[in-house]
Structure formats: C-alpha cells, structure tokens
Specification:
This protein has 335 residues and is mainly beta. 5% of the residues lie in helices and 35% in strands.
Amino acid sequence: MTFQSLLLRSLGITLMVGAQLNNPASAAITFLGDWAGFGTEFQLTGPQTTSIDGSPVEWVAGYGPNHWRIVQEKGLNRLVMAQDPTSPKGGAVLQVQVLPGDNVGWTGERAEVSHMLSPTGAQYEVTAANGHEVYGISIKLDPNWVPPLHDATHGNTWGIFLQLHSPDQFDSPPAFQLAVTTQFNAGLLGGDLIDTNGNRRGVNSYTLTKADLQAGHWVQFVVDVVWAYGNTGSLTVYRKDEGDVSFVSVLTQTGVPTLQFDSQLPNSQNTSTAQNATKYLHYWKTGYYRSVSPGVTSRLSLGPVIRGTSLPEVQAAAFGPTVTPNPPGAPVASH
C-alpha cells in the first residue's frame, strides 16, 4: 500500500471518496481557498468599491462560501486565475503581478485579496477562540524574479505574500507574515503593540532555516499555529520544495503571543460581552504586497490557500497527499 493510501486511510477516507478532501463540508477544513472560481463573483461597482482617478482599485471579490471577500488591484490583469498542471494540486492557481505604481490608496504597491468567507459564507476572521489552526499555501516565483527595492520613505524593503492583517483600528504591521524578497522570511508581531515606554513596537523578522528562492519552482509552506494574546501561543512553519519527499521545519517560535492588542484601547482583546462592544478582528490577505519599486515588476503564482484544524487534511487539501511534517527536532522520516 502506498504512503498516500495509508494517509487517506488514517483520515478515514478511501480512495473512492478521496475527493472529499476538496469538500468544504469536511469539518477539519474550515476554508477551502481554491482559485477555480476566482473572478466569477466580482462586483466592480457598489458601496464597497474604491476608485482612484475613476478606476476601481478595491471591490467585492466574492460572496459565496470559501471565497475571498475583497480584492485590491490596480487592474484586472494583476490577479488572474489560470490552470497550472505543474502546481502541487495540478489545477487552478492565482497568477499575481505587481507593477511599478500599483498603489491602491495605502503604503506600498500591491495586488491582494482579503477577508476569507467561511463554508457558510460568513466573514471568517481570526481570534483567540480559534485556538490551534493549520494553514497551507504554495508559491512559485517567476524564473526571472527581481526582488522589490528598498523604500527610503519607510526605511525598509518588504514583499509579503501571506499576512494575518492587524485589526484595522490598530494601524499596525501584520501579526504574522510570510514574505519573499531576496529570500523567504517570516515576521511576527504579537502581544501588546505598546512597549513599556509607551512607544509602538515593530515586527520581529526571522530568516527561515531554508530560505532560498527556488525561482521557477513550486515551494510549499505549512503554518501550524496556536492563537493567543499572551505567551501561550506558538508558531511553526514547514517547507517542502519540488523533488523533496517531506516537509522540514524552517521556523519554530513557542511561548509567544501570536495575536495583537493595544493596551491603550479598551477591550482590544475582545473580552467584553456587551452587544455594542467594539470588535478588534485580525483577517487574512494573500497576493503580493511590496515596498515601492520603480522599474520592477513582481510576478508569482499561488496555489490554494487552505485553513483547517488537522495538519494531514490541510496538507492533502493544499498539496495532495504527501508526507506529514515531523514535530520540531524529530528526524525526518523517508517514505
């Protein structure tokens, strides 16, 4: 029996019903971000549309279960669904390109989608109540990848392809980010955004233990996280390249906050049960968000974004059946 068959059997699934891995009704898969239907529910005009110089740059991307709610792009050719048989799932991917001047009203240049919609079609943010979750995403950089440039105005270089956006009221960098510029890296900014001196804190950036780009080839990432405002949170990022037989841990942080709050704002940890209490909600974005880069066009492809509570099922839904990551520090098994 193959490893794939053993994995499916361990999930209580036979090969005949293996398609259930793509079924959003699976209790362990809580967001099935397949790109096949992307663009079919666009609403270019309406109350949620934002325009610059008469052209829409933000609008409703979708309203059905397992869609992204909002799209931000400077033109309809910036985020495009395409079929890619070389991708880990061999199906629909999102082709992303960010061009010089692709500012949509905030800092930097970007083409992104945001706000997951759950299997029931409700907006699906992240709070501490979500507890332990697993995410899967794959990325392929253009073979002629050119990294973003240094932004002198903001003092750094960035290029984020997956981010847990700060609650909008905080006006803060992301709580978590996966990024790629000259290499892959991650960022974490959890806990109180105000330090002991009353100043705002910045992102802690981490170079992954395997950070090379592999431009022109698919790279798979799994994020295993426990959401917490205090030091009970944890985060592990796994990576697998084309040709690899298993994932390896490339970043582990334990005993850390993974969600943000602002001690200068009441109820910023959402503890109030009052009906009219302000809610401070983190939400996901994906695509590419970079520092201003004159003369540079960034092109990449993204596989499905999967959210769930079971590491094997998230893996299978994001990449197809494969080798389960070992716990941090454990030897990597060969299959």
